[in-house]
Amino acid sequence: xxLLGNMMNVIGEGDDVLLYLDGRRTYMVRVEAGKQFxxxxxxxxxxxxxxxxxxxxxxxxxxxxxxxxxxxxxDRVLKTDRRTQVLYPKDIGFILLHVGVxxxxxxxxxxxxxxxxxxxxxxxVKPDGMIYSYDINPKFQGVAAGNIERAGLMEYVExxxxxxxVGIDEADVDAVIxxxxxxxxxxxxxxxALAGSGVFVSFSPTIEQVMKTVxxxxxxxxIEVETIELLLRNYTVAQNRTRPRTQMLGHSGYIxxxxxxxxxxxx
Length: 267
Prior knowledge:
Strand order of the largest sheet: 9-8-7-10-11-15-12
Organism: marine sediment metagenome
Shape: globular
CATH topology of the largest domain: Rossmann fold
InterPro entries: SAM-dependent_MTases_sf (IPR029063), TRM61_C (IPR049470), tRNA_MeTrfase_Gcd14 (IPR014816)
Domain tRNA (adenine(58)-N(1))-methyltransferase catalytic subunit TRM61 C-terminal: 79-241
Order of helices and strands: HEEEEEEHHEHEHEEHEHEEEE
CATH superfamily of the largest domain: Vaccinia Virus protein VP39
Oligomer: single chain
Keywords: Methyltransferase, S-adenosyl-L-methionine, Transferase, tRNA processing
Protein name: tRNA (adenine(58)-N(1))-methyltransferase catalytic subunit TRM61 C-terminal domain-containing protein
CATH architecture of the largest domain: 3-Layer(aba) Sandwich
Number of domains: 2
CATH class of the largest domain: Alpha Beta
Strand content: 25-35%
Largest sheet: 7 strands, mixed
Radius of gyration: 21 Å
C-alpha cells in the first residue's frame, strides 16, 4: 500500500503539474519529455520532472525556483479553458458541502459551461457515481469535455446537449444543480427528478432570478428554502502589520437551496 501511494505521488509523462512561482503566478502544464515551458523567469525543462515526486523544486534556465505541485480541483477550476464565466471555488465548496453528495451519488447539473462545477462534482461522486450535465450550447460542451478529460474524470460524466427547461431524463437523483438564466422554469422538472430528501441548488447572478426561483420552489413540496451570498476576503499576515487585503472577492452570485419532501412543503 505504501509503495502504491508513493507511485501515485510521482510525476509521470503526460501528467499535469501546477508550476508554482509565487502566490500570484502559477502555471498548469503537461509534462512531456523534451518539452520546455517558457516564462519571463526563464524556461523549465519539463522532462526533468519525470520520475520526481510532486512537491519537487526545479530550476529555470535563469536559476529561478519553481515548485511542481499536484493540481487540486481548485487549481483545475481556476486554470480551466473558459468560454463562459465559471463558478468560483468559494461557491463550489459551499455547494458541494450543502448537497451532501459522495461516492455513488447521481447528480443532474444544468449549464455545463466550461465544466468547472462538473469536475468538482465528478471528483466527489467517483468511482461509482455519475454527473448528468445538460447544456443547450454544443460549443460549450466541447470545451467542457476537453477540461474534464484532462482532469481524468470523463468516465463519471455524461454530457447531454439539450434544454433542461423542457424536462429531465433522469429519476431518483440525489441533487439537481442549476447555473442557467431561468432556473425557475426547471423547478417542476427538478422535483420530479429528485429522490425524496434530494437537494435543489440554483446559482444566479441577479436577485430578480432568485425571487422567481424561490416563488417557484414554494409552489412545490420543497422545504428549507434558503438563499445565501458568499464574500471572500484574504488577509496579509506579517509581524505587527496583519491586515485585510484591499481587494476582496465580493459578489459572484446568489445560491438558492431547497430539499424535496413527499407531500406538502413548508418554508
